[in-house]
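The instructor's notes for this session suggest beginning with a concrete chain rather than abstract definitions. Hand out the sequence below and ask the class to guess, before any prediction is shown, which regions might be ordered.
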Amino acid sequence: MTNIKEGDEIYLVFDHKQNYKLKVVTGEKFHTRKGFIELGDLIGKPFGMVVTSSLGMAFYVLKPLIRDRVLKTDRRTQVLYPKDISYILLQMDLGSGSQVVEAGTGSGALTMAMANSVRPNGMIYSYDISERHQKVAARNIDKSGLMPWVELEIKDITKGIPNKDVDAVFLDMSQPWKVVRSAWDALAGSGVFMSFSPTIDQVMKTTEMLNSLPFIEIETIELLLREITVAPNKTRPRTQMIGHSGYLTSARKVIELLE
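After discussion, reveal the predicted structure:
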């Protein structure tokens, strides 16, 4: 059983909508409409316990999962949804030892998920043209404890990717087609290219560039997530759902194309 220590991060859950990611610090109180909680009182207690606020309201104290860290990042840019991130991790076949180039970093949500997948022997090389965005990302990644597996750099990779023989390249930027040639150069044989684009126009230009180079298995998908409300005699899909977030385009590098 893992017990909570000074400085640990916790995921405090009241219900589906009211949940918080916090750091445990002696002497600090966390205030909500449901009352306050003395964070120092949690030290030495096990994750998974129930804690009662000053108003007698019960909260669950959980250990943050990577999905909690992604959803609770300090956001300055749009953050990819878990529905997209899970597909990206599978499609790129990330595991310990994988070497990945990412651009742009944004708030670091995907960066954290990828770093969690490639540790302890892999590395994420993440580039962004915005110093402000990378400062936010650095704080988020540092809080997660995943910084040892991430290298951040301010760089415009439309002018070239310095890395070679990487396993995957992921692009979340406005003009990904401008990096397709450099991505092919950076990838090892059989490596995976992926890009996230909000509009079809971006997808069309990126796919055209992919088709002009030795890439195969070129495809674009869109993921829609619909939650089901489960209750006696009224189980049905929820009225609201996470619909369009963006299109995911993927391809694999080959050395040459068959005639």
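Then share the key points. The longest strand covers residues 187-197. The chain has two domains: 9-64, 68-253.
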